[in-house]
Amino acid sequence: MDFVTISGVVLCHSCPVRYYLETRREFEQERIEYTIAKQISYHLGRDLCNDEIWDEIRLINPNISEEDYPLFENWLEKCRDCSWPVSIESDVEIRSNKLGVIGRIDNLFESEPNIGIIRAGCAPEKGIYKSDRIRCALVSICAAETLKIKGEEILLQYIPDGVTKVCKPSPADRRTAIRALSYAKKIDRGYIPEKKNTERCNTCYLKDYCLTKPKKISDLI
After folding, report:
1. Which of 13, 55, 63, 191 sits in a 20 to 30 Å window from 126, CA-based?
2. If one looks up domain 4-220 in CATH, what number appears?
């Protein structure tokens, strides 16, 4: 069975064309923001030592420079103001053989909510982003099948703001996730989605590769 990643499903829901292009890229450099958020997350609930975490970040992502330090420092200071649960395990792989989807849990906790997902973007002022709800729905399904954890509540950890939110995936979230997964698999089988011009297209970093019928990035370089 061919599996689709949870992140891929979320991306396909947001923009099928971007999913098409991303899955055909030969190599994708990890975003600086993600590296910073991820490495900070390993230390949450413990002593947050600037130098120790920054040294780890520089080793992991060579593209990060001293110019990125103020961003790191700002995020770390915000995280100091929040009470974080200490994880018992990190980067736990999960999957659903029934659906054909794979992913990972960023943090696993002893008490509920047992599952933590790191976000490298700012938290919404109200509610939870639809994309995060879809992500949580799939994580919940995979965790139940792989780890026998219900995952009715999932802790979203927004590192840039030092904020946490609890998401309870609804049946509607699961339906949306399954539809997006089905579409992603259709694209993986060779279907080429058509571009739908929206305001977000103007700021998308793939806009130069996105045509009415998008070509592979390798064909345009």
Report:
1. 13
2. 3.90.320
